[in-house]
Amino acid sequence: MKVHHDLNALPEFKNAVITIGSFDGVHKGHQEIIEQVKQLAQRCQGESVLITFHPHPRAIVYPKDTTLRLITTIEEKIELIGRYEVDHLVVVPFTVEFSQLNADEYIEKFLVGRFHPRYIVIGYDHRFGLSRQGDINFLQWYGERFGYEVVEIEKQVLEDVTVSSTKIRRALEEGDVKNAARFLGHFFLLNGKVAEGQKIGRTIGYPTANLEVSEKSKLVPPDGIYAVFLTVAGKRYRGMLYIGRRPTLKEFNNRTIEVNIFDFDADIYGQYVMLELVDFLRGDQKFNGLTALKEQLAKDKIAAEAVLLDAPLIDSTFHLENPPQVAVVVLNYNGRNYLQQFLPYLL
What we know:
Helices cover 33% and strands 23% of the residues. The chain is an alpha/beta fold and 347 residues long. Mean pLDDT is 90; it is low at 315-321.
């Protein structure tokens, strides 16, 4: 998949089949739309093109609105969409100026001028342009002039997208990352840059990597301990994640996101890591000193390892309804843990 951030440097697309959306979460509803775009591109020997916006339009149109909570950051969105073999992802810089395009300009200058689409796959309720002037009928009327066809996404698919998004956010707000993964079709992602902390975990045998999440609107689950997979420098590890204010340590009160990586000893300060939250283990607790905390962390590690051992080696984005015609089979004598550590994406 090719990712484009500069509208002035887009290639000449061949028979582009485009769709537009926020794709927040890239969940199963979105995946169905993506599959529809890919199949249509295959039939017309064209290219599949997904168009999304960054920052989120709400953050620009309503800058004082602090209620926006995103399931995925733009980096996570790119990572997830890349799993579905889309030809192109175009990340449009959403600005005040862009938001002022009227419906005619949106079609002529943006959609047609930049993409020259063969098909536009869109929902019946899609609105665009200044004051949301444009709709699917407007797109269809212009299609006769510019030579593209509008393909309407089924109403049931759109309703599934809305329902899924609501259920995912509710589950994440309750810490139920396992249930959220059912609707997402993959584990919930949490990306961040590793920053230096107080290194207290190191003194009790559980060193942690402190994560800085730069996207202020990113939805972060409630405080507690989670079993996670962690990918750093292209390699996947197991670990346990802590989100909370460290109530056992009275001198600190800031909320931290830190992960203890199992069987890991490298210096990764300044690197970006990707967490996959597999399951919630317990809520945050205050303990009577570091010794009691250490004893609990030992129990947490055992619980996390058990959860991760039973978790799929890959997430559920791999659909066996359409099995591959060619398989690469690895005969592994080293045990499941070894395979999971070094070849995490095998089924």
